[in-house]
Amino acid sequence: MPTNAQHRNYRKTYKTPRRPFEKERLDAELKLVGEYGLRCKREIWRCQYALAKLRKAARTLLTLDPKDPKRIFEGTALLRRMSRYGLLAEDELELDFVLQLTTQKLLERRLQTKVFKQGLAKSIHHARVLIRQRHISVGGQLVNVPSFNVRTSSEKHIDISADSPYGQGAPGRVAKKRAAAK
Q1: DSSP symbols for 28-41
Q2: How does DSSP classify residue 159?
Q3: Measuring CA to CA, how many Å separate 70 from each of 52, 78, 81, 169?
Q4: How far apart, in whole angstroms, are the C-alpha atoms of residue 41 and residue 114?
Q5: Who contacts 118 (Cβ-Cβ below 8 Å, separation ≥6)?
């Protein structure tokens, strides 16, 4: 029987809350969804799940002896990754600070938030639309995923795509129609 080389064993990227109708959590989630222009609460749960995995890794490394080679190697790799994504500042490069990370800190690093904060979009929702409609590029590479985590090195390279009608690209559907009507 032929094998399918494209097969991947996908796993869940989020974890639903244990208590589905907890008022405080529901209100906090709704506030985050509005503030960061998220599509649904699953996007929050995905961030929380990623954060939980990071914190778990830091916790297990903290249980090891400070001179342990595994803690030294994996700890520095984890901290380097955190600083590359702008989650930890240069003066916070310790495993204890990984445990203090919040969901908001992760949501601040999303492409959607960065596009809005840099003034490329009129609102957080407009930013999401621009990204999905392929108008935004990061370092010359077109990105159409609003949840894309932006590295600190790529932050200044977020711009309107070269192929986009908003940039130097060909005019869009409405602009062509108006030009033909003249």
Answers
A1: HHHHHHHHHT-SSH
A2: E
A3: 20, 12, 16, 50
A4: 20
A5: 158
Instruction: Give me the tens of pLDDT residue by residue for the chain, a chain 182 residues long.
Output: 566 667 788 889 999 999 999 999 999 999 999 999 999 999 999 999 999 999 999 999 999 999 999 999 999 999 999 999 999 999 999 999 999 999 999 999 999 999 999 999 999 999 999 999 999 999 999 999 999 999 999 999 999 998 999 988 888 889 999 999 98
92 in Cβ contact with 80 (< 8 Å)? no
> In angstroms, rounded to a whole number, what is the distance separating the alpha carbons of residues 134 and 121?
13
User: Which residue pairs, CB below 8 angstroms and at least 24 apart, start in 81-84?
Assistant: 82/54, 83/152, 84/151, 84/152, 84/153
Say what the alpha-carbon torsion angle 157, 161, 166, 168 is, to the nearest 10 degrees: 100
Q: What is the pTM of this model?
A: 0.88
Contact between 167 and 144 (Cβ < 8 Å): no
Sign of the alpha-carbon torsion through 72, 73, 75, 79: positive
